[in-house]
Amino acid sequence: MSGERTAGGGPAVGEGAVSEGVVGEGGVGGVAVDDFYGRLKAFEGRTAAVGGEGKDPVNEPMIRHWCEAMGDANPAYPAIAPPTMLQVWTMGGLSGHPAGSARSEAYDELLALLDGAGCTSVVATDCEQEYVRPLRPGDRVTFDAVIESVSPRKTTKLGEGHFVTTRMDVRAGGDLVGRHRFRILKYAPARRATTAKGAKRPRPVINRDNAGFWAGVAEHRLLIQRCTGCGALRFPWLPGCGACGCQEWETVEASGAGTVFSYVVMHHPPFPAFDPPYAVGLIELAEGVRMISNITGVRYDEVRIGMPVELEFLRVDADLELPVFRGVVA
């Protein structure tokens, strides 16, 4: 059997999703295309990792955790490991791989060559897996990897660069159990277009269900709905209570105090009227409900989960004012 999945951690921009760059005279980073690509092609077939060993044997607890996370209730597990766990048994974790199973010098040289040509950014694009036989608890996994291919120059929305594909052969007891192909894009970031002068933020969609909230914002008040049937607070605004179904409600003004429950930092893609990078937080209000808004007053890289925040109202243009949360640094 065989399988294929898309790698996480970034947008899927595989080779099939981009247009091929036209080979011109300039090349990437000012290097002549033909000469540079020839140097890249020379790495094909060279080792990317040799003598790799899995940190743990195939085991039932990890199989159970995987199945719970994926919602996979196949009764065949954990007698065998789900085939798509193939890469799991080869990963080094935060502490890295054991001594002797590190990345090869050839792979580091390839990445350094691309860095030197201006392809300093990287994104994982996709992976493919082939399965020869199931892994079972107790199997000890070993692996080798080879640089299988380096693509010609490609043009993507992220920028121009090259796709690098590595093939990992995974074994147990010396027998091949599967192959894992992993593809990355090493690219030179495209120049970001300057924001059009006068570009405005998107307008909020105001309807009869949330009009009261925006009326409160106009008065610099952050209003939360409270069900008159069961007393449950809710946000965002909804026509009925999710706890008891009651459609009657009243409003409570939030104190404005809260903490960062979670957050993301927006880098790409850029949007008109926004200047990345910036932090977008899921804020847990003192009243217990959560809402999404921008985090202001601190650098994006200073935002932390649990950071105290305070409500403020930010006028973004003449017609729009929004509730945001200012980070409080101890």
Layout of secondary structure:
Layout: E1 2-5, E2 19-20, H1 33-41, E3 47-53, H2 60-70, H3 105-116, E4 121-131, E5 141-150, E6 154-155, E7 159-172, E8 175-189, H4 211-218, E9 223-227, E10 233-234, E11 249-253, E12 257-266, E13 278-285, E14 290-296, E15 308-317, E16 320-327
Domain FAS1-like dehydratase: 53-171
Protein name: DUF35 domain-containing protein
Domain ChsH2 rubredoxin-like zinc ribbon: 214-246
Q: Helicity, in percent? A: 10-25%
Number of domains: 2
Structural class: mainly beta
CATH hierarchy, class of the largest domain = Alpha Beta
Can you count the helices?
4
CATH superfamily of the largest domain: Hotdog Thioesterase
Gross morphology is extended
Strand content: 35-45%
- CATH topology of the largest domain, what is it called? Thiol Ester Dehydrase, Chain A
Radius of gyration based on Cα positions: 26 Å
Number of strands: 16
CATH architecture grouping of the largest domain: Roll
Poorly predicted parts: 1-30
Rounded mean pLDDT score: 88
N to C succession of SSEs = EEHEHHEEEEEHEEEEEEEE
End-to-end distance: 55 Å
Report on the biggest sheet: 8 strands, antiparallel
Organism: Streptomyces sparsogenes DSM 40356
Domain FAS1-like dehydratase: 53-171
Pfam families: FAS1_DH_region, OB_ChsH2_C, zf-ChsH2
InterPro entries: ChsH2_C, ChsH2_Znr, FAS1-like_DH_region, HotDog_dom_sf, NA-bd_OB-fold, Thioester_dehydratase-like
